TrEMBL record:
Organism: Eiseniibacteriota bacterium
Domain PatA-like N-terminal: 4-161
Transmembrane segments: none
Coiled-coil region: none
Domain of life: Bacteria
Taxonomic classification: Bacteria, Candidatus Eiseniibacteriota
Alphabetical list of InterPro entries matching this protein: PatA-like_N, T2SS_E_N_sf
Protein name: DUF4388 domain-containing protein
Amino acid sequence: MALQGNLDDFSLPEILQLISVQQKSGVLKLTAGSDVAVIFFEGGRVVSTRDRRRNARDPLKTFLVQTGYITEAQLKQIETIEAESRRELTDILLTGNYVPGDQLSGALEKQIQDTFHQLLTWKQGTYHFSGDAKTVPKFAVNVRLNTEGLLMESMRRLDEAARYKEVLSSPAMVLRPKALAVPPKDMTAEERRVLPLVDGLRPLRDIVAQSKLVEFEVYEAAHHLLELGIVEVSLGAAPPKVTPIAKDEVKAPPARSMSIPVAIFFLLLSIAIGRWATPALYVRAERARPAPALSSSIDDSQRLALALEVYHSIRGEYPTELRALSREGYLPPAAVSFFYSRFDYHSDGTTYSKTAR
């Protein structure tokens, strides 16, 4: 059986179902631009998504490192052994005691499922199926997975991922533990990996990288923890890349009469973009580097006024004491101590007064 064409005319789920129903053996090659993927079948069941002729791009290597089965250093050792001995990857993993056999079987199944999920996002490209049983590879560890089961799970993941990303809309989004929330005892293994990484500092993309899970599993776990009320959004619609707060360096000080209006404009803009990002970013900057010296290029009274307006814009009231600015993360403690020594401050929450000492 030979089958080829464009994914525009014949969708990947249709191709997979046809091969499964007819219980064919062979290899399906998919090409989309520079991306190439293969799926090997035996009797209509999936046995591999790896091409031994493309060792440098073996998806199993990337998956094993990403999910923590092996380290980058171990991968280099394995690739050296591959080059010198021409032995197959799973054989090296087993005989070198890098990954136990039962864990390797589970890793292969997860890697195939993740590959299916990724391939179902391809809307354009070409396919070619060659029904030759001789092309089906044999490995030190082999699996035979139900094609329709893989397909149904992948389609579920696509639907759920779209739903999760309506809430977790940016990889730069930051989550934090919700105050007084008690994690349930029946959390999934994925949720137990994700929850310790939710600290109010790491963006979602860092949690994905550090959790030893695939992206979908992280989003699924994080979304469920949000639904349970265990975590909450700390930093929402953030820019594509979050960078530390810049040092307080002003090349040309603005005119004193314009400094507060300009500051308020950028304040409102940052609130609209960051959904109350300012407190978390101040905390992150404070932890990431020593507190900077206060710049003398902006009037101290104006600096304090700006901090108070930030607090008021987010809290809806002014702080009753200056120390609340550092206690709640709006200014570094060093800055608050400086202002405390320079100004007498009084507030009833609605208005405030400050006078130089």
